[in-house]
Write a structure and sequence with these properties.
There is one protein chain. The chain contains eight helices and 13 strands. By secondary structure, the chain is an alpha/beta fold. It has a domain of about 180 residues: Rossmann fold (3-Layer(aba) Sandwich). The strands form three sheets. The protein has a six-stranded mixed sheet with strand order 7-10-11-4-12-13, sandwiched between helices. It is globular, with a radius of gyration of 19 Å. The two termini are about 20 Å apart.
Length: about 280
């Protein structure tokens, strides 16, 4: 079953003089392209000229040690922080994303590590929080229930007892699934997941990783911010590594192994060679 997509007005302000970019090799322009993104907070430089490509239908793992700039870069894409320098291109056109609302109008949704769910509300209420459907002067409960159920079914989330059960009664993996389903309902094209398997058990981690695979299968671009290299090599198609605010490595998973990613994360470079037939390659 396909995901239910809730349409919202198109937005995201085009940058002055923005123009379409030529397609890259293979004719596929990344859904989101960052070029030369820099950001500072007072005397602290958080990002230095960062380039990043996020293609549709692929999972990109953003890796880096604490303080590498992963959260700042994610918040720049989400419209929370404004970059000091650099350009952002969405579907080949230059844009300025000035707020989370503008990011959402483009189709960019972020699931932060705290999930931002209200424990006292049920699943349907959480998925439509702030975007409730109205029928005259009352909530259109039937319409919201149907849309929530269809979205969860489209993601194969079948372990919840009822879409009307309070979020407080859900397991960690179920809560993550609800947060992701909430993100993909609204005409989403890019979903960013911040440490989606942190503090989850083995079974719940498997559930979330399967969910990431389904998002890719629906043609969405997915960026997973993770310290867990087992998860990265399980679901990622591409890897991007930040070190002290600089993008030090970026490419397809076949160009990396766990040791080289650790090298880039900790020192900013690696001399390890990875064979093209290495065991780290994923099979689709």
């Amino acid at each position: 079953m396909s995901l239910t997509r809730m349409e919202e007005p198109a937005g995201g302000a085009p940058a002055p003089g923005g123009q379409a970019l030529a397609n890259g090799p293979g004719g596929a322009e990344p859904l989101l392209k960052l070029r030369g993104i820099s950001k500072h907070f007072g005397a602290v430089q958080a990002l230095y000229g960062v380039d990043l490509d996020l293609p549709a239908g692929h999972v990109t793992a953003l890796c880096g040690d604490n303080g590498a700039g992963k959260s700042v870069l994610t918040k720049v894409i989400a419209g929370i922080h404004q970059p000091d320098h650099g350009e952002m291109y969405w579907e080949g056109r230059r844009v300025h994303i000035r707020s989370p609302k503008e990011a959402a109008s483009l189709g960019i949704e972020t699931v932060y590590q705290d999930l931002a769910l209200a424990d006292n509300l049920d699943i349907v209420q959480n998925m439509f929080l702030g975007r409730e459907r109205m029928s005259r002067f009352t909530l259109n409960e039937d319409s919201m229930e149907r849309a929530a159920a269809e979205t969860l079914a489209g993601l194969h989330v079948t372990t919840v007892r009822s879409i009307r059960q309070p979020v407080a009664t859900l397991s960690g993996g179920q809560r993550q699934a609800v947060a992701v389903a909430k993100a993909v309902m609204w005409n989403s094209k890019l979903v960013m997941l911040d440490e989606p398997t942190a503090a989850l058990g083995v079974a719940q981690t498997r559930m979330v990783l399967d969910l990431v695979e389904r998002l890719k299968g629906h043609g969405l671009a997915v960026m997973v911010i993770s310290h867990n290299l087992n998860d990265v090599f399980e679901v990622a198609d591409r890897v991007a590594v930040l070190h002290l605010g600089r993008m030090v490595a970026q490419g397809w998973l076949s160009a990396f192994n766990r040791e080289s990613v650790v090298d880039f994360m900790t020192t900013g470079g690696s001399t390890r060679e990875v064979a093209a037939s290495g065991s780290n390659q994923r099979r689709d």
